[in-house]
Amino acid sequence: MINKIYKHIEARITYTRIVMLERMAVSGGVLISAAIVLLFCLFFLAFGSIAAGFWIGRELNDLVLGFGIVCGFWFVLTLLGILFREYLIEIPLRDLIVRLMMDDDDDEEDEIIKKLEEEDVTNLKD
Predict the structure, then answer these.
(1) How many helices (H) and strands (E) are present in the chain, helices listed first?
(2) In the prediction, which pLDDT does 126 show?
(3) In which residue ranges of the chain is pLDDT below 50?
């Protein structure tokens, strides 16, 4: 009886390690792909802002004023981001991480543990 309990605990620990490794790999992949997309977006925004500054400056016949308007736009956008960061960034990011880490695979978990326990029980009989 004690051997069965020990084997069950050992099976649960092994399964938990495998699940955590899988979830860490998925989370790492999501973070790396998000970082790459963010990098491309930053390049797009930087070059787009430069182009907008030149365009507005040429329309107003004053490049300094054109770049000043673009800078003011980014300043206002930054202030809004700071004010609403909890609702725009923190809560959605926290929900994403929780969804990735708490994947609902309880049925699969129960089946795997039963198989591991059955293998251990059959090994004990031999």
Answers:
(1) 5, 0
(2) 45
(3) 124-126
Instruction: Please write down the HEC assignment for all residues of the chain.
Output: CHHHHHHHHHHHHHHHHHHHHHHHHHHHHHHHHHHHHHHHHHHHHHHHHHHHHHHHHHHCCCHHHHHHHHHHHHHHHHHHHHHCHHHHHHHHHHHHHHHHHCCCCHHHHHHHHHHHHHHHHHHHHC
The whole-number pLDDT of residue 101 equals 72
Sign, CA torsion 101/106/108/111: positive
- What's phi and psi for 100, nearest 5 deg? -70, -40
Q: Which pLDDT value is given to residue 65?
A: 95
